Amino acid sequence: MTLPGRCPGPRSIFGTMKALAPTSEAELAEMVASASEPLRIMGGGTRPIGVPVNGQPLTTSRLTGVTLYEPGALTLVVQAGTPVEEVRKTLAAEGQRLAFEPMDHRGLLGTTGEPTIGGVFAANVSGPRRIQAGAARDFLLGVRFVDGQGQVTRNGGRVMKNVTGYDLVKLMAGSYGTLGVLTELALKVLPASHHTATITLSGLDDTTAVAALSRALGSPFEITGAAHRQTADGPQTCLRIEGFEKSVAYRAGQIQTLLADLGAAKVETDPDTNTTLWQDIRDVACFHDGEGDIWRLSVKPSDAPGIKAQVDGAEALYDWGGGLVWLRVPQNTHADTIRAAVNAAGGHATLIRGNRAGGAFQPLSPPIAALQDGLRARFDPRGILNPGLMGRAA
Amino acid sequence: MDMPKPNPTILARKSQLLDRLASFLPREALIHDPSETRAYECDGLTAYKCPPLAVVLPASTAEVSETLRICNDMGVPVVPRGAGTSLAGGALPTEDSVIIGVARMTEVLETDYDNRFIRVQTGRTNLSVTGAVEEDGFFYAPDPSSQLACAIAGNIAMNSGGAHCLKYGVTTNNLMGVTMVLMDGTVTEIGGAHLDAEGLDLLGLICGSEGQLGIVTEATLRILHKPEGARPVLIGYDSSEIAGQCVSDIIKAGVLPVAIEFMDRPCIRATEAFAGAGYPDCEALLIVEVEGSDAEIDEQLETIMDIARKHDPVELRQSSSEDESKRIWLGRKSAFGAMGKINDYMCLDGTIPVNELPYVLKRIGEMSKEYGLDVANVFHAGDGNMHPLILFDANKEGDLELCEELGAEILKLCVEVGGCLTGEHGVGIEKRDLMLHQYDPPDLEIQMAVKDVFDPKWLLNPAKVFPLASSDTRRIAAE
Q1: Labelling B474: which of A144, B115, B234, B271 has CA 20 to 30 A away?
Q2: Quick check: A2 pLDDT over 60?
């Protein structure tokens, strides 16, 4: 028998403890207000990033449904626990999409369950199109959330331009449930593209590849994906162009001319092949199988190959023109090795898969850490929302 | 407009404060003579004026830090100032405050085309950021209409937008990193040349916080290569409802123009008399601009014009030359100036859901009649950011108050239909007391809690953003 408001969650995430699963915002607020122990806040539990939280699981997965969808205004209001797949289908029916292309972490992290839209924003998850369209946080227009005292709060709205008061919408995006539990989100959506082409160069070393990506991204031809990866056939450097048919053909031609000195390029225009290719890059498919710790680095693109070269035994997938590096390193590679390389250049590194006992998120400078701790203490004075995540001591 | 009473203790300690500031600032960086501080008594919202105690114009982050440390130590309020172009009173001083202006900090610190960013001191004007990279084909996207004068510091404080943000986003979407000095003088670095700064999104929080959390002295900004070309099309309709429908259909069709601008008849007539752009005399005019190569522009404009034709336009004119494009934009860009020629006006900045456009325009028309004040509309239709201009006579007793009352009613209407009080100008003092129409007390409480963390004594940019009554206890407790 399942108790009301509770559901058995996937074993790997929820452990043996039954998760609290409120079916309304009011019920969620009451649960947080009356909580006497730390809460482990989650959506579908498919993205266990950071040091595992020792606490009573609370999932938003039963807060579901689209509240409002105005295709002509490019806006969608949705409950936080709504599956990403449901959002995708709703938008696709009107020829629209989540332009920031959120990654699905299940393959990389070996998790099961249903990714939720709230989880996407709580972790600010963006895919290859982030370089052109923006990150998840750039598409979040408004939020409702329950803070650490059980107070329901809202910020932002459902319009594109809004500077009314402080932008807590951005603050909530990527806060991993440490400031509040998201209950409802207003999003900006965009039209899906009619056509896609991918221009692929083969055999480039990392440095040449990132330089090629930079050259293309610094052109007027609106690249929406820029990645460099290792395949069974050797290294591939991929550039994506999207839009109306003639425009895509024109820009694909221009990019080939621009990069003609780097060898013959292959142009792929088949929609399904393109979808698979960019989904593989988005979800880091190349590292799904096999051992090894996975690190996610955000760096200045031209620094990326040098940072990778400093880590023994590292393999890399470069996205965002080199600015996003997925590193697979031998198991238990010391965090200091990677952090030292990243810190010297500037940027940040997060341990996504592997032993996270020593911390997963980038350590912050003392003044920034003080601000972050101060904000958490205000939003969650009792320290019950995901304690230990994002650096603050449990 | 109520402002907090000046603190007599601070006024009495003026000479001590000036001594401490003069101990490390060069003479030209410290202004305290009343004849000179008067230049700083207001910003673009000229209806309200108050000279500050002193003005500091630092040349470096270190000087900003030292000034803040001293003011914090002595409990002196600080009003950060960019170029002073705020239309919301965001840089209005109080009598007991020190203005810290970044006007002397205008250097380009680093330009990196491979990684597509520029790092500047924040006193640099918006347009001169683009100016620093345009010879190499690049530009900085946010383009507020004050871009010739406004500073990046103010753009960050107000999260400024512009006509082209439908495609390129506003300041927050183009800001990669900052050097920011906290009220106690601590210098912080957030983000940089990489995407998505680590930790909580403090960059997103600072952007649009109206100078109440810290003073941003340096900024890393995303730059983009300029498009190959751009061309507008002019579409005229005999009803604003149909124009609104056309906007919605264009967006739904999957074309993403860089700009969709809307002007109504009063605005068209005023602009036409002023700039002679050749606009038709109709109820609603749309300027839709797309970018790309010539062929790409043709392809997009074809789709847009097909949609426009379905709604039976009274005018449909595609620009055929660079000169014609310029003229089309000249009308729009001189709209505010044109209105200013014929009248005093107040410019509002509410945003509404795009689909509410016809209803809101109809209601504004009715309210305009009720109040007996003309309202002209010119705005960014693609994103619902309205700029109703209320015409009034500053020399006529009671007209300003009547105008402000109508303005408040229009903004409340924006909120009622699901929009907000301000889309790009900021709250400042102008919309401060309307905040409770947008937010409930707990929503404001948590925003004020953010300020508690960054500025525990509530000294930075006093009396802005929050209704005075809501923030009273905090300011008094800090004194």
Answers
A1: A144
A2: no
DSSP B80: E
**Of B420, B424, B444, which to mutate for an interface test with A (greatest number of A Cβ within 10 Å)?**
B420
Q: Would you say B79 and B91 are in contact if contact means Cβ atoms under 8 Å apart?
A: yes
- Kindly give, in sequence order, each residue whose CB lies less than 8 Å from that of residue A112, ignoring residues fewer than 6 positions away: A10, A12, A46, A106
Q: What is the 3-state secondary structure (H, E, C) of B346-390?
A: EECCCECCHHHHHHHHHHHHHHHHHHCCCEEEEEEHHHCECCEEE
Q: Which residues pair with A119 in a beta bridge?
A: none
Over residues A145-179, the pLDDT tens digits come to: 999 999 999 999 999 999 999 999 999 999 999 99
Q: Which of B188, B296, B420 sits opposite A157 (nearest CB)?
A: B420
Partner-chain contact A379 B446, CB within 8 Å = yes
Q: Give the residue extent of every domain in chain A.
A: 1-192, 195-281, 285-353
User: How many whole angstroms separate alpha carbon A243 and alpha carbon A190?
Assistant: 12
Q: What topology is assigned to A285-353 in CATH? A: Alpha-Beta Plaits (3.30.70)
Among all residues of chain B, which has the CA nearest to that of A143?
B443
What pLDDT, in 10s, does the model give residues A11-52?
A: 444 455 789 999 999 999 999 999 999 999 999 999 998 888
In the chain, the amino acid numbered A25 is E
Q: Of B198, B290, B445, which to mutate for an interface test with A (greatest number of A Cβ within 10 Å)?
A: B198
Q: What is the dihedral of CA A251, A257, A258, A262, to 10 degrees?
A: 130
Within 8 A of A220 by CB-CB distance, chain B residues are 137, 225-228
User: B219, B188, B227: which is closest to B118 by C-alpha?
Assistant: B219
Q: Looking at the partner chain, which of A164, A244, A368 has a beta carbon nearest the beta carbon of B199?
A: A368
Architecture in CATH of A1-192: 2-Layer Sandwich (3.30)
Check A163 against B299: CB less than 8 A apart: no
Widest CA span of chain B, in angstroms? 71
Tokens of A271: 């929609």
Q: What is the CA radius of gyration of chain B?
A: 23
Rounded to whole angstroms, how far apart are CA atoms B98 and B126?
Answer: 25
Cα–Cα distance, B391 to B373 (Å, whole number): 6
| Average pLDDT value for residue range B245-251 | 89
pLDDT average, residue stretch B39-46: 93
Is the pLDDT higher at A25 or at B341?
Answer: A25
Which residue is closest to A157 within chain B, CA to CA? B419
CB A362 within 8 A of CB A338: no
Contact A123, A174 (CB under 8 A): yes
**Fold match between A1-192 and A285-353?**
no
> Thinking of the domain A195-281, which architecture would CATH place it in?
2-Layer Sandwich (3.30)
A74, A124, A391: residue with CB nearest B251: A74
pLDDT at B422: 96
Q: What is the pLDDT of residue B264?
A: 92
Q: What is the ipTM of this complex?
A: 0.95
Q: Where do the domains of chain B lie, and which CATH numbers do they carry? A: 8-101 (3.30.43.10), 108-225 (3.30.465.10), 230-336 (3.30.70.3450), 343-416 (3.30.70.2740), 432-478 (no CATH)
Which residues in chain A are contacts of B168 at CB distance < 8 A? none
At residue A1 the predicted structure's pLDDT band, cuts being 50, 70 and 90, is very low
Do B226 and A168 make contact, defined as CB atoms within 8 angstroms? no
**Beta strand pairing status for B78-81 and B98-101?**
parallel
Question: Which among A164, A222, A324 is the top mutation candidate for probing chain B, defined by the most B β-carbons within 10 Å of its own β-carbon?
Answer: A164
> Distance of CA B2 to CAs B41, B433, B468, Å?
16, 10, 8
Closest by Cα among A8, A92, A129, A121 to A57: A8
For residue B315, give both structure tokens: 């005018």
